[in-house]
Amino acid sequence: MASLSVLLPHSKLDAIFRACIPWPRSTPLNFTYVRDNASYFDAEAFRDLCFPALERLSEINSLDVADELFTLLPAPESREFPEQALGMLQLLDQGPRQLFEGHDERWTYSYFDILALRLSHRLRALPETLRPDSQRRWVDDMGYTFSHWTIARFRFTAPFTHSESAADQELQRHLCEELRRAVEVATGIRDAYRECITEVTMDPTAFSRQACIGPPAGDAITMAEFVFWFLMIFDTHVSIIRVFGRFPSRNGAVGRTTTEAENRFLEHTGWFGTVEEKVRRRIREDVEAGKWTPLGEP
């Protein structure tokens, strides 16, 4: 059985990173292209990159492995650390979201999300000058454009956004506000969504509604338009945790019982983000039996 160090060498983490942020570092991003190619990587190629390591991690099935994953990264002082740290986070946070369906979704929310979050907190605990999500490291040290850094910052923030912890939601709001201000300064454009921040952070139906509406339309999407919309989407997660203390849409995927209030909410959102009933039953049976169906098993 291959070790994690064999499955996740620096070259593999670099390949995962470049599958997710493939654009030349010195050319400002075309955000119309970014919008239209949210899943720009080849699905089979991404699976080949990620699935063997995800499968091995599922076999280990221990949250303590997050510490080992950190040791597989290069030294925080190294130039390649931000890219490879992001590659590792993409493996844990986005890999399962892109590759898993059906009963495998339990692995996404009950295991890999937690690993991604633990790694994110470990990265956040580094001295400020070494944090891999900083603008200075991406733009000044590695020569990426400011627009590349905005996408990298979103991806570093995502594990906090996906967390069911109120403290993590407040942290992601802080990180989003830092990014919002940076883009406002860089573009001279004030985020118009500021006018509805209170609304979206108090209305738990805002996420499903805004996600269905989608990003700005048109053939010439600016960085400000795209980034401000995405920040608003991140903000909409806060209200769900404030009202329910968890994401009700995940209940079926993690084997939880849905309350009456949550059921009314899910019905109102058109069951947005929920698993099918047969999947819910199977996961519930596994949880009650204290077992996990192996990843990828029919």
Count the DSSP helices.
Answer: 16
How many DSSP-defined strands?
Answer: 0
The helix-and-strand class reads: mainly alpha
Roughly how many Å is the radius of gyration? 19 Å
Distance between the termini: 22 Å
Average pLDDT, to the nearest integer? Answer: 95
Strand content: under 5%
**Which overall shape is indicated by the principal axes computed on the Cα atoms?**
globular
| N-to-C series of helices and strands | HHHHHHHHHHHHHHHH
Helix content: 55-70%
- Largest sheet at a glance? none
Segments where pLDDT lies below 50 for 5+ residues? Answer: none
Mind explaining what this structure looks like?
It contains 16 helices and no strands. The protein is mostly helical and about 300 residues long.
What is this structure, in a nutshell?
With 298 residues, this protein is an all-alpha fold.
Describe the protein's topology.
Elements: H1 4-7, H2 10-20, H3 31-36, H4 43-60, H5 65-71, H6 81-99, H7 105-124, H8 135-141, H9 146-161, H10 166-187, H11 197-200, H12 206-213, H13 223-244, H14 251-254, H15 260-268, H16 277-289
Name a few traits of the molecule.
globular, 16 helices, about 65% helix
